[in-house]
Each structure stands twice: as structure tokens, then as C-alpha cells.
Amino acid sequence: MIQWSEEYRLGLADIDEQHKNLFAIANKAYDLLKNELRTDKYDQIMEILDELRDYTVTHFSQEEEYMASIGYPKLLSHKVQHSDFIEKISNVDLNSVDANQEKYLFDLLDFFADWLVNHILKTDRMYVGG
User: Fold this and answer.
1) Helices in the chain by DSSP H: which ranges?
2) What is the per-residue pLDDT across 103-115, written as a single tens digit (0 to 9) for each?
3) pTM attached to this predicted model
4) Which residues are annotated as a binding site for Fe cation?
5) Which segments are annotated as binding site?
């Protein structure tokens, strides 16, 4: 489980709320991974991926608008990180997901949790001067 804590707060209410929602999506993946009663998780994995992709597109757009509004000098490199993330979660080999759902879900959660925490604590913190 990946939990929101105050160390992730950037001090921008809208963006902090969006980050909390990203943590909630990660926790959906975690809960699904830990659910031993459900043997076929393919549809739920696809729902999580769709939600994650749709939400990050919206979130990244708003975050990039904010950075542009303050004249953030590293906006372009930040946008590249966002694009790379969306590309990774958009280019999923559906056959490999179906063939080994638990492993895929574990790998997705590991990637997403690591990316989310590091991106907020390091990359996002830079545009708020922290």
C-alpha cells in the first residue's frame, strides 16, 4: 500500500488533491493485487490502466499549465517525463497482461509507486521552490 503523507504536499491545493487521487489509483491496484478471491483480474487491470492514463493526462496538463503560468524554466524536460509515463502505461502488451496477471499487476504497481513518489518528491518539488 502506498499512502499519502504530508511530505508529498507541494502547497498547491489543486495539484495536491490530484496527487492524492493518483495515490488512490495506486491503492486500487494494490488492493486488486492482494485480492486472493479474484482469480481473473484482467478486466480490473484494464480499468485501472484506463483510469490511470485518463487521470494522468488531465493532471499532467493542469500541472504543465501551472508551470507555464509561472515561467518555470524546466517545463520542457518536465513535460518529457510526463509524456514518457503516459507512453509506458499506454503501450501495454495485453497478451502478457492476460498471461500473467499477478506479475503484471505487481510490476505496474512497483513502477507506478516508485515513479509517483520520486516524481513528486524530486521533480515536482522543483517547480514550487522546494
Assistant:
1) 13-34, 42-69, 75-90, 94-99, 101-118, 125-127
2) 999 999 999 989 9
3) 0.91
4) 19, 59, 63, 78, 82, 119, 124
5) 19, 59, 63, 78, 82, 119, 124
